[in-house]
Amino acid sequence: MTTPARASRGVAELDPRDHCDRAGEQAIFRELMEFKSATRLMTISDIGRSGKSSLLRRLQHNCKEELKPSVPSSLVELNLLGQTEESALAQTPFAFVRSVIYAFKHRIDTPQALFPAFHALKDAVEKGLESAAVQENAPAAKHDDAPVAPSGIAGSGTASAKVNEGQVIGVKNVDQEIRANVVIIQNGRSGLTPDQERRIHEQYIEAFFADLRATTLQRPLAILLDGWEQCNQDLRDWIRDELLGRNLFYPDHAQRPSQLLVVIAARPHGYKRGEHPRGLRSDEFASLFDSQGEFAQAVYRIESLSREWDDDTIQAFVRNLGYPPLEASDLSFFRDKMYNKGWTPGQVETVVQSMYESEAS
Fold first, then answer.
1. Judging by beta carbons within 10 Å of its beta carbon (0-12, 13-18, 19+), is residue 327 exposed, middle or buried?
2. CB 3.0-4.6 Å disulfide test: which of 79, 135, 164, 330 passes with 326?
3. What is the average pLDDT across 50-65?
4. Is residue 75 classed as helix, strand or coil in its secondary structure?
5. Would the pLDDT of 39 be above 80?
6. CA–CA separation, 318 and 333 (whole Å)
7. Residue pair 284/236 in contact by the 8 Å Cβ criterion
């Protein structure tokens, strides 16, 4: 075997079509995206390094490039959510909603076009922030509809927005339901009081759900969530109760986002190798439904990914690791391990890396 120079392995350079095909799982996803059944949630559970993340990237690629018409989709890695945020915002419902919106990919439509109510509120709030003026050395001011500014801080400027019964709004429709009474610190930084920030975040989330309902009346959407086991419990509860329970599976079907499919990928719950103590349980979302039959109709569960790896798929996987194609004897070795021994992609990666690195040493 000739020792290769290993290529860069940046995720952005990988073509989703070269990830393991999982043809069966892709076919199920395509069928669910036709929305001819009651299923609106698809869960994918398998041990670590079995290809769940690769499959989700492939599904997002299919939404954009293969489904006709193209479907906007959002892929959020829950284990990375909030890493670039201040600790107070990390893995909160607001951080989640914002990540979902700006992770949407589509050939034509932008997040702004898909979520107009959210962005109308955002523009209104930012307009209020920008219009607030710094009043250096001014005494604390009290306004009829603004909080009392602490000593040394002057308060001015307001911005308001409303989401009305799930309808998309524009800035001109803004009213007094929620206010961002801006507090300006003398050094020029602007901010909100904790209570104002909480109320604004709640309004952003309401706008997000209103947009989901309005947009899915016109076109399908897909939200793909990876790393469920790495998500903190508070946010997991919120996703289950709010995104799923009070929206996707709301008792009044007319108030549901009609053409929304959510996919959640996770390690299974357990303590064996490849499992996770906070992994996905088989009955994770059963409490949202009145009966086991309703649960079975609404949630499509995949509890083990297919292990169908042909030669082209194995070679593509190795190529994505940054190595040249396997020689025939090595390809035969891995084919046997994957078909007959149940090796996962993670095990193959470890051995391939070891093979090439031993040749280089």
1. exposed
2. 330
3. 91
4. strand
5. yes
6. 13
7. no
Share of the chain above pLDDT 90, in %: 47
Residue 260 has which token pair? 């929304």
Answer yes or no: are the C-beta atoms of 314 and 334 closer than 8 Å: yes
Instruction: Report whether 276 contacts 229 (CB < 8 A).
Output: yes
- Whole-angstrom distance, CA of residue 286 vs CA of residue 263: 16
* C-alpha to C-alpha distance for 265 and 41, rounded to whole angstroms: 11
Neighbouring CB atoms inside 10 A of 139's CB total 10
pLDDT of residue 157: 36
Quote the distance between the C-alpha of residue 207 and its chain's center. 17
Residue closest to 205 by CA, chosen among 173, 251, 246: 246
pLDDT at 33: 97
The answer on pLDDT for 86 being more than 60 is no
Amino acid at 182: V
Burial, 5: exposed, middle or buried (Cβ in 10 Å; 0-12, 13-18, 19+)? Answer: exposed
- Which of the 8 DSSP states describes residue 90? T
How many CA atoms within 13 Å lie on the side-chain side of 184? Answer: 20
Angle of helix 311-320 relative to helix 328-340, nearest 10 degrees? 110
Across the chain, what does the average pLDDT equal? Answer: 77
Mean pLDDT value across residues 122-139: 60
pLDDT exceeds 60 at position 9: no
Question: What are the tokens at 121?
Answer: 């509120």
At residue 160, the pLDDT reads 42
Q: Specify the pTM.
A: 0.72
CB 224 within 8 A of CB 60: yes
How far apart are the two ends of the chain, measured CA to CA in Å?
Answer: 13
